[in-house]
Amino acid sequence: MEFDGPAPHPGPDGPGPGLAHGAAGEQKPPPPPELPPNNSIYINNISEKIKIQTLLTELQAIFEQFGNILEIHAKKNLRMRGQAFIVFEEIESAQKAVNSMQGFPFHDKKMRIAFAKRDSDLIAKKKGTYVEKDRSKKDKKKKKKKDKKVNPMQAMMSMMNPQMMMQMQKMMAQGGMQGGMNMQAMAKMMPQMQANMQKMMAQMQGGGAPAAAAPIPSAVPAPNMGLPEGKFGSNNIIFVQDLPEEVDEKMLTALFNQFDNFMEVRMAPSKTGRAAFIEYTNEVSAANAKDTLQGFKVTPTTQLKITFAKK
Q1: Predicted model pTM
Q2: Contact between 13 and 109 (Cβ < 8 Å)
Q3: Residue 216: CB partners within 8 Å, gap ≥ 6?
Q4: What is the predicted pLDDT for the residue at 216?
Q5: In this structure, which of 127, 223, 262, 292 has its CB flanked by the most CB atoms within 10 Å?
Q6: pLDDT reported for residue 12
Q7: Three-state SS string across the chain, please?
Q8: CA max distance for the chain
Q9: What's the chain's average pLDDT?
Q10: pLDDT (tens digit per residue) in 98-141
Q11: Beta-bridge partner residues of 86
């Protein structure tokens, strides 16, 4: 529930001028701003050392003498600590509380009390003036959280590097699996492939050669896919064509950024459907990505068709 109360007053703890609780000669802060009477009163300058449950119990005991209390709100978060709202059933009760308890000593501090700026939700509902709060912020948070969910393809791609992809191609070729790779095959082979990669890394480290400098294992020859190889020469940008609707920029990024020197993915229309340009900082990395992922099944029925982009 949201309440608005007057801004806290600067200066030492104490009531407004002319209050019975003020000591002689004590400098006092300005009185709270005048607001129209309300069923809800706002209290600040409350000791932050008081536990919330204790505070609620004590405020109930102190203020119930003025009339029936419908609810009391106090929170320990940074924005609301040291403050409370009390909602009375009758406005007259709230007026008595404000007039009688201004500057009341409470846990070594003196209460500052004023009417709240607006009705509480409970009172607004009784009056028939309640308006649902703007939920746009909450909806945006939910949408952002939903957008962060990674689909299975992206999750699988994040677990792979170029060596793992090439090893998978080799394993599938040895197993007689034709027509490229699919998600089911990838899932089945992942444990064995990870074990092989760990063994490979251990061997490289034991031999004193840093992982980054190790030669990339040779993969099975990339399928031709019926593309005009070499038509535009080598390039640091490769072109992927005939992409299905479900393959988007995020998925392609997850797939192609596993290779060194990746820069970006740019989606583009083509005569035969959707396409994308994948850019690397040099031709060697682009060629490695092209040859490794040529024929890769991004869906059960769609294989990647990759060429160098036209210069």
Answers
A1: 0.38
A2: yes
A3: 162, 163, 166, 288
A4: 38
A5: 292
A6: 38
A7: CCCCCCCCCCCCCCCCCCCCCCCCCCCCCCCCCCCCCCCEEEEECCCCCCCHHHHHHHHHHHHHHHCCEEEEECCCCCCCCCCEEEEECCHHHHHHHHHHHCCCEECCEECEEEECCCCCHHHHHHHCCCCCCCCHHHHHHHHHHHHCCCCHHHHHHHCCCHHHHHHHHHHHHHCCCCCCCCHHHHHHHHHHHHHHHHHHHHHHHHCCCCHHHCCCCCCCCCCCCCCCCCCCCCCCEEEEEEECCCCCHHHHHHHHCCCCCEEEEEEEEECCEEEEEEEECCHHHHHHHHHHHCCCEEECCEECEEEECCC
A8: 97
A9: 74
A10: 999 999 999 889 999 999 988 888 888 888 888 877 666 666 66
A11: 41, 72
Residue found under tokens 């003020």: 22
- Residue 32 dihedral angles phi and psi, to the nearest 5°: -60, 150
CA distance linking residue 204 with residue 207, whole number of Å? 5
Candidate from 25-29, 135-139, 217-221 with smallest mean pLDDT: 217-221
Domains defined along the chain, listed by start: 1-131 (3.30.70.330), 237-308 (3.30.70.330)
> What are the tokens at 185?
């095959």
Instruction: Find the radius of gyration of the CA atoms of the chain.
Output: 35
Q: Quick one: tokens of 271?
A: 């005569």
Token pair, residue 239, equals: 């072109």
Q: Find how far residue 207's CA is from the centre of its chain.
A: 43
